[in-house]
Amino acid sequence: METDAVLDLMWIVICGILVFFMQAGFTLVEAGFTRAKNTSNIIMKNLMDLSVGSLAFWAIGYTIMYGDSIGSFIGTPSLFYDVREDMHNLFFQTVFCATAATIVSGAIAERTKFSTYLIFSLLLTTIIYPISGHWVWQGDGWLTGLGFIDFAGSTVVHSVGGWAALVAAALVGPRIGKYTDGKSNALPGHNMLYGALGVFILWLGWFGFNPGSELAISGDSANNVAGIVITTNLAAAAGAVVALFLTWIRYGKADISMTLNGALAGLVGITAGCAAVDPMGAFIIGIVSGIVVVFSIEFIDKVLKIDDPVGAISVHGVVGAVGTLLVGVFATDGGLLYGGGFGQLGVQAIGVVAIGGWAMITTFIVLSILKAVMGLRVTEKEELDGLDIHEHGIDSYPEFGRDK
């Protein structure tokens, strides 16, 4: 192999390893933002998202996503992908797929049957995510043909997970004690240190997620990668700072959970346009993302009364959609602010609506069937005692008891 080809392959593998490490970040965020009595259950869900997703995506999902296009809608499926020269891409796309599944876990934490969740995770990674991903990233998908831009997956990965999470959380229903007499009650997470460490790990992993999506680092791609690192970091920082000051003003305190979610929102928001915008555009996208996530979390919790313990619907679904739309505004080539008119913005809107609709409709169908056949929710006693003891036979913190 030529040196440039070796460098590019090595870059993709290294970035895939960084994205793999994001599973640890998701586990820590979800565990930290929820109660101690469900920690082991959250560990198991995140571990199985990666494990089940890896097997399912290799077995058939990768070819559904990247196989020769059938009608610009779906790839030609084949079983047990084994093309030696493409193993680096299989790995990189596998860890992306696992990310989409893990997003759902946080929104339905603390009250969902583990067995039902496993089946849904399998179907998301095998069918739901690969088909909509084909529309954008395979090269011959119908959204690619329209000129839709989602460089690293604000919509392809994050909004798919976020919109699936919205439907799942609505169908499962709120945790016991979350709403009384129409009022939303806080059910605080048990360890903000875990939550903060998880966000730092996710922020680090995003330097594989976005720059890795260049799929090369040789030649001119080296400068492209460096630029993507900067746009990614600026948006995350702006999202965190804006969420901090907005909640400080609104609540009178410097809110840690919202600030952490602000950083994640900035990361999700920039993911679609990280290669298409300049540093100033990334900074503004981060600001918008930090504002949107605060109001979205409040709206979903207090108005829609959908219980999302970690804010996953807002961070990944809502902000993912907003970030994708903002590519049509801030893209230096064709964006509204750069003389491109409303054309790109319109294409971005089509992609956001189409993929969001696909994720929500398919999730509703799958979970409605699972609800009828298996049930979605644990019993009241299991929920009150904690899923750790009933689903897994263990207390994560036996010295503290199960009432935390």
From TrEMBL:
A GO BP entry: ammonium homeostasis
GO molecular function ontology, one term from the record: ammonium channel activity
Spans traversing the lipid bilayer: 6-29, 50-70, 90-109, 116-137, 149-172, 192-209, 225-246, 258-276, 282-300, 312-330, 350-370
Superkingdom of origin: Bacteria
All copies of domain Ammonium transporter AmtB-like, residue ranges: 10-395
SUPFAM superfamilies named among the record's database cross-references: Ammonium transporter
Membrane topology: Multi-pass membrane protein
Cellular-component GO terms for this entry: plasma membrane
Key words, A-Z: Ammonia transport, Membrane, Transmembrane, Transmembrane helix, Transport
NCBIfam families linked to this entry: amt (TIGR00836)
Pfam families tied to this protein: Ammonium_transp
Family matches, as InterPro entries: Ammonium/urea_transptr, Ammonium_transpt, Ammonium_transpt_CS, NH4_transpt_AmtB-like_dom
Family the entry assigns: Belongs to the ammonia transporter channel (TC 1.A.11.2) family.
Subcellular compartments: Cell membrane; Membrane
Name assigned to this protein: Ammonium transporter
Main location: membrane
